[in-house]
Amino acid sequence: MELTEGGQRLLSHVSGLIRQLEQAYDDVRSSDAHISGEVVFGIVPTVSYILAAPLVRRAAKQFPALAARGERLETE
Questions:
Q1: pTM of the full predicted structure?
Q2: From CA 41, how far away is CA 58, in angstroms rounded?
Q3: Which residue has the higher pLDDT, 43 or 54?
């Protein structure tokens, strides 16, 4: 696969951002901080039927000290 000229330009713009996000993710995952508190998942109804339950289950498994709450977002 080869990037188009536009794809190459886009990659040059976002590659630094991607590295920063990866570094931030690694920093948070490797910290000894205990993650706890209430998290509110705001998901539009069309997506919530598919995504909400797996997302909350995964969050609860990975961060057992979190309390999850859902908010239904109304769409226009």
A1: 0.45
A2: 13
A3: 54
Counting the structural domains of the chain, the total is 2
Q: Kind and range of the H or E element at 71?
A: strand 66-72
Query: H-type helices in 1-76, by residue range?
Result: 5-30, 45-62
Alpha-carbon distance of 54 to 48, in angstroms, equals 10
CA distance linking residue 2 with residue 49, whole number of Å: 37
Judgement on whether residues 10 and 40 belong to the same structural domain of the protein:
no
| CB-based burial label for 54 (10 Å; 0-12, 13-18, 19+) | exposed
What the block records as the tokens of 19 is 């590295």
Could you give the CA distance from residue 14 to residue 51 in angstroms, rounded to a whole number? 27
Statement to judge: residues 43 and 75 lie in one domain: yes
